[in-house]
Write a structure and sequence with these properties.
Elements: E1 2-5, E2 8-10, H1 20-29, H2 31-36, E3 51-56, H3 63-72, E4 79-84, H4 91-101, E5 106-111, H5 119-128, E6 135-141, H6 144-151, E7 163-165, H7 171-178, H8 180-183, H9 196-200, H10 207-216, H11 220-229, H12 234-247, H13 255-267, E8 272-273, H14 275-279, H15 287-299, E9 303-306, E10 308-310, E11 315-317, E12 322-326, H16 329-339, H17 346-349, H18 356-362, E13 374-378, E14 383-389, E15 392-397, H19 404-412, E16 416-420, H20 424-431
Parallel strand pairs: 1-4, 3-6, 3-7, 4-5, 5-6, 10-13, 15-16
Antiparallel strand pairs: 1-2, 8-12, 9-12, 10-11, 13-14, 14-15
Length: 437
């Protein structure tokens, strides 16, 4: 088997493991444990030859390490090509680079392919020349809009290729990995096959693992560091802070203004808010600038902007008021560190956030073909229900019960749950996506 990593030829498959991200993961999980706890289920990568597939998701979540592990275990390829596309000059360079290296059955990973302007044109050209018939290609990216829109320009050329979102681990995965005995009785239960009465009758106490998940979130490296060391080094915090601030690097907005936006985002967590409201308390003059700043972050997967859904019309309804959440609980704490301009001793210094809703929203993410989560709001009664996902409404309550007006909205949904603090972890487990058996 020929292995080419960034134009260097090798016959040793283990060269794929000589990567900092892989070494860090092996240090936490061990080599055998890493295959089980890879950021992305390795079985998902086994697309057929003659296909072009897309893998997108936030930085620092393990896309590169997972793909290198997949390449390392391959038995069906004559040639393996891994290319960091930040070193590729342009689409012509990419085309000639691949054309020279493809031989027989070839598996190719083009990492951060959006670095190459017009990358899809290079693949279209090679496809037209018949050079990709025996190729399995994976293109990765950390900017959703660019990668997905460019990928759509490969109609008919993707073959049986697939598109995967590298999402944070769900609470279901967290429980299955670290509390398998407790999770086992619930593993095969579909949340649509139970009801509110069933939920209220569950007497299990998952407060401890839920608190752990709300601390570490679902980024595998962060989970591993907390489980191994009980805390994170400041240097690890700074990696994720740099990711958020780096996403804004092309703009000339001062960092004090960016910190003010981050703080406002944390202060309005769990609330409906518009761009004008976020602008207040910052020195940014335009709500359109706020929109641009937040859309950039959504495109880089550090936040998720939740739309409004109209139950009566069955459509997503345009609304000035948005609900904006960090992509997972740990990233919410990273946003707080940016907002309060914390530079060191992060564990002791970050203010407390109510991130139950943020953690719950993370459970709605899917690797493929996900229904979109939304919130419900009734203008006539000024009432809101926290989430609507896959034809089910969810209202989260730390104390008390929904109001009469909230129940009116809940009863219009095909299915609904009211989650109290004691049973929220069980419901979160049922909603989250698990690994294929």
């Amino acid at each position: 088997m020929r292995i080419i990593i960034n134009q260097r030829l090798s016959n040793d498959i283990n060269v794929l493991l000589d990567d900092l991200s892989v070494k860090e993961a092996v240090n936490i999980w061990g080599f055998e444990g890493l295959h089980k706890k890879s950021s992305i289920d390795l079985k998902m990568f086994n697309a057929p030859f003659g296909s072009i597939s897309l893998l997108y998701g936030p930085r620092q979540i393990g896309k590169t390490a997972s793909l290198k592990l997949f390449l390392h275990q391959l038995k069906d390829s004559d040639t393996i090509i891994y290319t960091d596309c930040s070193a590729i000059l342009n689409k012509q360079d990419l085309s000639s680079h691949l054309s020279e290296l493809i031989y027989e059955k070839t598996t190719i990973v083009l990492d951060e392919v959006q670095s190459v302007e017009g990358w899809y044109l290079a693949l279209r050209s090679l496809y037209s020349e018949g050079k990709l018939k025996k190729c399995r290609i994976w293109c990765t990216g950390s900017e959703a809009r660019h990668l997905l829109e460019s990928g759509e320009r490969l109609p008919g050329r993707k073959g049986e290729g697939i598109t995967i979102f590298a999402r944070p681990w769900s609470f279901k995965e967290y429980m299955d990995f670290f509390y398998p005995q407790e999770a086992d009785p619930f593993r095969e239960i579909n949340f649509k096959h139970v009801n509110q009465h069933w939920l209220e009758n569950q007497k299990i106490d998952w407060e401890k693992p839920w608190k752990e998940y709300c601390l570490s979130g679902g980024f595998p490296r962060i989970v591993g560091e907390y489980r191994k060391n009980g805390q994170l080094l400041d240097s690890i915090w700074n990696i994720y802070i740099d990711w958020i601030l780096g996403s804004w690097s092309k703009l000339r907005t001062p960092q004090r203004s960016l910190s003010a936006v981050a703080k406002k985002l944390c202060e309005t967590l769990n609330s409906r808010v518009n761009f004008e409201a976020i602008k207040k308390g910052t020195d940014i003059q335009s709500a359109n600038t706020i929109r641009t700043l937040l859309e950039i972050q959504e495109d880089h997967f550090s936040i998720h902007i939740v739309p409004r859904f109209d139950l009566q019309r069955g459509i997503f309804a345009p609304a000035k008021q948005k609900k904006i959440y960090p992509i997972d609980p740990f990233i919410a704490r990273v946003w707080a560190s940016v907002g309060w301009n914390i530079r060191r001793l992060f564990e002791e210094s970050i203010p407390s956030l109510n991130i139950s809703e943020c953690a719950f929203l993370t459970q709605t993410y899917r690797s493929m073909n996900a229904p979109e989560a939304a919130y419900l709001y009734r203008d006539s009664s000024k009432s809101e229900v926290d989430f609507y996902f896959d034809e089910c409404a969810f209202e989260l309550k730390s104390n008390g019960n929904p109001t009469k007006k909230q129940f009116e909205i809940l009863n219009e949904a095909p299915h609904y749950f009211v989650a109290q603090r004691k049973n929220l972890p069980v419901l979160a487990y049922l909603i989250g996506e698990g690994r294929a058996s």
